[in-house]
Amino acid sequence: RKEVEQDPGPFNVPEGATVAFNCTYSNSASQSFFWYRQDCRKEPKLLMSVYSSGNEDGRFTAQLNRASQYISLLIRDSKLSDSATYLCVVNFGNYGGSQGNLIFGKGTKLSVKP
Amino acid sequence: NAGVMQNPRHLVRRRGQEARLRCSPMKGHSHVYWYRQLPEEGLKFMVYLQKENIIDESGMPKERFSAEFPKEGPSILRIQQVVRGDSAAYFCASSPGSRETQYFGPGTRLLVL
User: Fold this and answer.
1) Most CB atoms closer than 10 Å: which of A14, A21, B9, B30?
2) Under an 8 A CB cutoff, do A99 and B56 touch?
3) Cβ-based neighbours of A114, under 8 Å, separated by 6 or more
4) Measured between beta carbons, which residues in chain B are less than 8 angstroms from residue A106?
């Protein structure tokens, strides 16, 4: 089983649509969770951290379900500029000797069309 | 406050040559991480360093790859005797402490001919 698994997409949606991405992770001892965004041939950029209580930042809402080892990202009112690859990222904490390096999913590609 | 800087941005090497990739962390950050992204793949952790110390190199290939973060100057990822399979984007990230938010540099794209 992959450590962090995402649907690769692509998700092709019209402007204004609501789109949801899901992610599962294998290590129940994982300590912190993030969504990063990566534009084509660019570096990953932190979109938001994900907290157990769920959190929202403008049009973006992230949820964490520790029992199911499941993370989600909801984007409302999609913009053309939201087109990118969305990376689900997990930090295993001290598990297995890890010192805090990030474990990345392969990413879900989103394309927002006019 | 300048972000994480990496150079060169693009590097072309022939098989058997050496590649040296440099990373300057954000000001105030003493923790540096290197990740590799193969074409159509996710980022994979390689090594985590603090000043003058390698903290975790569990993701580094056993041969030809080495990393350092000297007391002065940037962190260096060194690949000796490069092979075509080393062609990838190499990203450096820095953070102010372990397990804190990591900020990524623009990456170095290595092409091995």
Assistant:
1) A21
2) yes
3) A14, A15, A80
4) 41-42
Q: How far apart are CA A14 and CA A91, in angstroms?
A: 33
A-B contacts (CB, under 8 Å): 56
* Residues B48, A49: C-beta atoms closer than 8 Å: no
Are B5 and B105 in contact by the 8 Å Cβ rule? The answer is yes
Which residues of chain B neighbour A31 with C-beta distances below 8 Å?
Answer: 99
Strand ranges (E), A39-106:
44-50, 55-57, 60-65, 70-75, 84-91, 102-104
User: Do you know the residue count of chain A?
Assistant: 114
Number of H helices, E strands in chain B: 0, 11
- The CA distance from A9 to A6, in Å, is 9
What residues of B are in the A interface, CB distance below 8 Å?
33, 35, 41-45, 48, 55-56, 58-59, 89, 91, 93, 98-99, 101-107, 109
Mean pLDDT per 10-residue section of chain B, whose length is 113 residues: 90 98 94 92 92 90 95 95 96 86 94 96
What does the buried/exposed string (b/e) look like for B24-42 if buried means 16 or more CB atoms within 10 Å of the residue's CB?
Answer: bbbeebebbbbbbbeeeeb
Q: What is the pLDDT of residues A11-40, one digit of tens each?
A: 999 999 999 999 999 988 777 899 999 999
Is cis: bond before A10, omega within 30 of 0? yes
